[in-house]
Amino acid sequence: MNYTxxxxxxxxxxxxxxxxxxxxxxxxxxxYNENKHKYSVQGFRKGHVPFNVICGLYGKEVFYEDAIxxxxxxxxxxxxxxxxxxxxxxxxxxxxxxxVSEDGITFTALIPVMPEVKVGAYKGIKVDKVEYNVTDEExxxxxxxxxxxxxxxxxxxxxxxxNGDIVVIDYSGSVDGVKFDGGTAEKQRLELGSGSFxxxxxxxxxxxxxGEDKDINxxxxxxxxxxxxxxxxxxxxxxxxxxxxxxxxxNDEFIKDATGEESVDAYKAKTRERMQKDNDRRAxxxxxxxxLNKIAENTEVVIPEAMVNQEITQMVQQLxxxxxxxxxxxxxxxxxxxxxxxxxxxxxxxxxxxxxxxQLIVNKIIVDEKIEATQEEVDAKIEEQAKSVNKxxxxxxxxxxxxxxxxxxxxxxxxxxxxFLVENNDIS
Length: 428
Hints:
Blueprint: E1 2-8, E2 12-19, H1 21-35, H2 51-58, H3 64-82, E3 94-101, E4 104-112, E5 126-127, H4 136-149, E6 152-156, E7 166-175, E8 178-191, H5 201-205, E9 213-219, E10 232-246, H6 252-259, H7 264-297, H8 305-325, H9 330-336, H10 341-368, H11 375-388, H12 393-398, H13 402-423, E11 426-427
Parallel strand pairs: 5-11
Antiparallel strand pairs: 1-2, 2-4, 3-4, 6-10, 7-8, 7-10, 9-10
């Protein structure tokens, strides 16, 4: 086997592999050994027909396809192993057969490889600082949620239902007089004004009395699941019960019982601190991302399609996980949004390219600046994690997977990288 390789366009390497007649004959013989059980010729037991007899009847070419596949699987990995320092694949290759005859074969592998990255200036850059400060309105909204979680439901019998009430209803929906799947329920709880049901439904329930029956008319949104999307529907409603959410009085006693804090002011201060930490992390992520965007503007790199496609696949998987947690199937989401998987992937392409480019920049700066995680730093992080679960560090280490240790190491390196970038640039 002989081979050559050369740099190709779009961050690819083209490997050309040639087998001489002797090597090619070995591959053909291997294909015969793997497939001889398929052949049956009069005068021979099935699976025991000699090689020369099969070639005489069908031609040696009958083994070429399997021989080629065998050659690719055998010699391509050998080339990668020998040239591991020069060829770093980042995706599957495209194979092409250039020549095949009794005297040998030549095939090529077009391999997407780790691209060369010419990073732009990453020191002395000016970036506008992003800050998110907690507002009084956000604190009050948190208090309101706390009160609602601890509200007492009181039965109401002397008035019609209104927004904010919880009603218990039966409903039966129909389109053109025909009931549809999922449109019927008994003693369903519904908080009026929550927006849980389709537009117009809750508004028409408001004002009903206990025991009242009422038909309401609604229109399903155009982006609703087919075949109901855009359809006019009628729901027959029967109201069983009205419940009023009676909020507790906001005072120090309530706060202590509900949260363990000593007073309303103490709870607000603790909540503000917690929210501000979240805001600071969000701002830090945005500031770091904005800095990377600035660096990327002057960075030259040709990103292989394989890397972009891998990132798109991860983004689609993340979307599927989010939908799953919401109780939705990806296929149903495509129907509701009237999109195809290809359209979703295409919509992610620009973001995927940006993500890959920034990751390449990060990796390049880490190498150029020789940023590493020391064993002491890794051990300290492990000890920190061990304490969080009330274990000794050595005991905790025994339960760790090697991938966990590698993750800790990488997280330390990334933290050190961004500390380096923040120190060497102007974020103000």
